[in-house]
């Protein structure tokens, strides 16, 4: 099964693109030189949509941006792709989470066909701790 999951490079890129566009709003607690009680607000959803990081089409879902010339998933710096945090706060379970996402998506895509219930309806988001669809 491991070998089969490794071959799903486009699925890996598509799931990463979903995480890039839909990263949550997150408050990080200071470490180091910042005084106790102060915090910084890191808006990961904005970082995932920054044109300076991702190009003019940063708002567009395009998994191809994460695929290299050989058709393999191109790993981005965790300081750019922040869905799993970075540095000393990086998610210890990120590989497990990615594996679960691939298995779940592969099973669903095998047995179901997905389509919008109202094809002409625009999808709008409500920004909260996680990104909700209105």
TrEMBL record:
<dbReference type="Pfam" id="PF00067">
    <property type="entry name" value="p450"/>
</dbReference>
<dbReference type="GO" id="GO:0020037">
    <property type="term" value="F:heme binding"/>
</dbReference>
<keyword id="KW-0560">Oxidoreductase</keyword>
<keyword id="KW-0812">Transmembrane</keyword>
<dbReference type="GO" id="GO:0016705">
    <property type="term" value="F:oxidoreductase activity, acting on paired donors, with incorporation or reduction of molecular oxygen"/>
</dbReference>
<comment type="similarity">
    <text>Belongs to the cytochrome P450 family.</text>
</comment>
<keyword id="KW-0479">Metal-binding</keyword>
<dbReference type="GO" id="GO:0005506">
    <property type="term" value="F:iron ion binding"/>
</dbReference>
<feature type="binding site" description="axial binding residue">
    <location>
        <position position="91"/>
    </location>
    <ligand>
        <name>heme</name>
    </ligand>
</feature>
<keyword id="KW-1133">Transmembrane helix</keyword>
<protein>
    <recommendedName>
        <fullName>noroxomaritidine synthase</fullName>
        <ecNumber>1.14.19.50</ecNumber>
    </recommendedName>
</protein>
<dbReference type="InterPro" id="IPR002401">
    <property type="entry name" value="Cyt_P450_E_grp-I"/>
</dbReference>
<keyword id="KW-0349">Heme</keyword>
<dbReference type="GO" id="GO:0004497">
    <property type="term" value="F:monooxygenase activity"/>
</dbReference>
<dbReference type="InterPro" id="IPR036396">
    <property type="entry name" value="Cyt_P450_sf"/>
</dbReference>
<dbReference type="InterPro" id="IPR001128">
    <property type="entry name" value="Cyt_P450"/>
</dbReference>
<keyword id="KW-0472">Membrane</keyword>
<dbReference type="GO" id="GO:0016020">
    <property type="term" value="C:membrane"/>
</dbReference>
<keyword id="KW-0408">Iron</keyword>
